[in-house]
Amino acid sequence: MEDVERLLGEKMKGKNKNDYKGKSEQMIEYIKKLRTCIRWFMELEDGYLAEQEKLRSMLDSEEKRHAEIEAQMKAKVEELNTIIQDLQRQHASLLESFRKEEADKLAFVKSYETEREARIAVENLRATLSEELEKVNQEARRFSDQLKMIQETNKRLQEYNTSLQQYNSNLQADALKNGETISKLQKEKNAMMETLTGLRDHTNSLKIQLDASRSSQQEAIKQKEELKKEVGCLRCELQQVRDERDHTLVQVQSLSVEVANYKERTGKSSQDMETIRIKANTLEETCSSQREQIQMLQHQLAAANEKLKRADLTAIETTTEYEQQKKTVKDLQERLADAEFQILEAEKLRKKLHNTILELKGNIRVFCRVRPILPDSDSSGIEGPVVSYPTSVESLGRGIDLMHHAQKYSFTFDKVFNHEASQEDVFVEISQLVQSALDGYKVCIFAYGQTGSGKTYTMMGKPQPSEQKGLIPRSLEQIFQTSQSLQCQGWKYKMQASMLEIYNETIRDLLSLSRPGSLDANAALSKQYAIKHDSNGNTQVSDLTVVDVCSLKEVSFLLQQAAQSRSVGKTQMNEQSSRSHFVFTLRISGVNESTEQQVQGVLNLIDLAGSERLAKSGSTGDRLKETQAINKSLSALSDVIFAIAKKEDHVPFRNSKLTYLLQPCLGGDSKTLMFVNIAPESSSVGESICSLRFAARVNSCEIGIPRRQTQMRSSDSRLSYG
C-alpha cells in the first residue's frame, strides 16, 4: 500500500516543457507500475473471494445444524406432550377410583352401624329370653315360638355376616389394585425422571452448542469488522484510483492538446503522431478496464454486505430459538414438578386408605397356623386326625375344628393357615402391617402357642433355603426394599434395631458383647434394665444396645448373634424349648426433604416363650420357675388385652415386663397381630384347645377402631394355666 501511495503521489518530470520523449518514457514506466498495482488488487480480490466462500460454507453448515436442532426439539416436545396426556388420563382414573372407594367406605360404615345396632338388639333379646326361661318354665309353647324366632334372627345375622365378609374380601382386592396402581405410577414417574435427565443432558449440549455458535458469531462479527475496515481501505484505494484515472484523463487531454499544438508548431511527421495516438488509446483502454474492475469490486462489496446482513439475521434467529427452547424446558420442569406433587398427594392418599382398610379389619387381629405333622410324632394313633377345616362359605379359610374325647371344638379367626401353608403365604397376609410401620405407625406382631408348635419357625424360619425364611427376615427385606424405592420421592429413612429377651421377668440385652453366653446362676447378677415411656408414646430401655442398620445383611448378622445368646432349655414337650420372650424392635425414622414430612414408626416382632401346663411339661427346679414366669407373663398379656377391650379405667400394664414394654403398641392407633400356633398331634390337643380359646377371646376384643365381632362356637372360653 505504501508503494501504491508513493506511485500515486509521483509527478511527471522532464528537462523542459517540450521534452515529450522523456515524459513519454516516464508515462510508460508509470503505466507498468499501475499494471503491477492492478495485479496486486486482483490477488487481493482473489483472497477476498476465498474468504467469502469460506464464510458462505460456514453459514450453510450453521443453517443445517440449527435445522437439525429444531427438528430434534420438535420431536422431544411432541413426545413430552404425549407423556403429559397419559399422566393426565391416569390422574383422572385415579380420582374416579378414589371417589368409588369413598362411596364404598361410607356404605360399609353405614351397614356396619346397622349391623351393630341389630346385634345389640339381639343380645338384649337373648338376655330377656334367658330371664323369662328361668322364671316361666311352664310356658313351653310360648318358649318354643320365641326360640324359633331367635333361630330365624340368628340365621339372618349369619347370612348378613357372610355378605359382610365377602365385602371385606372385595375391599382387600381393591386395596391391592390401588397398591398396584400406585406402583405403576411410581414406575412412570421414574421413567419421566429418566426422560427429564435426558432432556437436561440435551439442554446442556444445546447450551454448549449455543456457546460455540456465539463464539463463532463473535468471530464472524470480528471478521465483519475486519472486512468493514478492509472495505473502507478499498473505498479509499478506489477513490484514489478514480482520482488517478481522472488525473490520467486530464493528462491525456493535455497531451492531446500538446500534440495538436506540436503538430501545428513543428509539423512533425505523421508516423510519430500515430505512435502517440496508439499510446493514448492504450491509456484509454487501461482506464476503461480499471473502471470495470472498480464496478466489479463494488458489486463484490455489496454481496459481502448482504451476506453479513444474513449472518446477523441468522444469529438473531438462533438467539430467539434458544430463548424458546429455554422457555419450553422451564415449562416441562413446571409440569414435572406438578406431576411430582400429584404423586406425593397420591402417596398420602394411599397411606390414608391403607390405614383405613387396616382399621376396618381391626387394630388387633388373630391368625392361626397349624404346624405340619412331624415324622416321629404320634399322629398314627387310634384316635385319627384331630384337626379339620370347615368348608362352608362362612368359615372357609377362617375356621378350624378340633376333636377331643369325641367332642368337637370349633373356632373362627381372621385367617387360618393349614399345615400346607408356606412361609410366603403367611407373609403375604401380614405384609400390609409391615407397610404401616414404614408409614409411621406402631406395629406389634407376636407368635403365641405351646412349646414345639412352630412359633420360632414362623417368626425366624431357616436361612436356607430362602423359601423357609420367617416373618422377621421377610419383613426387614420388604422395609429396606420399599425405603430404597421411596428415595426417588425425596424420602430418607434411618433404621435402628435392638433385640432383647425377657427371662424370668428380667430383661437381657441379646446384642451386648459383655453378656454371658451360658444360662447359669450368675446370669441373675447381670445389668438391670429400666423401661421408660415418654409423652409421645416412645419406649426406651436404659443401657440397651441400639444399632443403626442400613441393609438386610447387617440385620441378619445381628439376628444370628441374638439367636446364639437366647435362653433355651429342654422339657418333656420339646428338646430345645425357648424359655424366654424374644423381642425384636426396629425403629423407623423417615424425613421427606422436599415436603418436610416426618414419620416415626416402630415394628415389634415377638417370639413368645412356649405356653404349657406344669403337669405336662414335667418341669422341676429352674425349669419350674421358668414355666411359672412364662405362664404369669402370658396371663398378664391376656389381662391387658381384655382390660383395653372393655375400656377399663385401669389397665394392668405393670404386672409384667412384657406388657409394660409393649404398652404403646397395644392401644390407640397401633396395629397388633397375634399368631396362635398349634401342633396337630393328638397328644397336644389339650394344649391346642387351651391356646385357641385364649386366641378366640383376643379375637373377640375391639381395640381402637371397632370391627365385626368374631364368633367362637366353643362351649367353654376360659383360659387356664396349670
TrEMBL record:
Tell me which residues bind ATP: 449-456
One Pfam family from the UniProt entry?
Answer: Kinesin
Keyword GTP-binding found: no
Any idea which UniProt keywords this protein has? ATP-binding, Coiled coil, Microtubule, Motor protein, Nucleotide-binding
What GO CC terms are in its UniProt record?
microtubule
Q: Which InterPro entries match?
A: Kinesin-like_fam, Kinesin_motor_CS, Kinesin_motor_dom, Kinesin_motor_dom_sf, P-loop_NTPase
Q: Which residues form a coiled coil?
A: 52-170, 210-244, 280-356
Q: Which SMART domains match?
A: KISc (SM00129)
Q: Name one GO biological process term.
A: microtubule-based movement
Residue span, Kinesin motor domain = 363-701
Give the GO molecular function terms. ATP binding; microtubule binding; microtubule motor activity
The record's listing under PANTHER family reads: KINESIN-LIKE PROTEIN KLP-3, PROTEIN CLARET SEGREGATIONAL
Similarity annotation: Belongs to the TRAFAC class myosin-kinesin ATPase superfamily. Kinesin family. KIN-14 subfamily.
Q: What is this protein identified as?
A: Kinesin-like protein
Natural source organism: Phoenix dactylifera
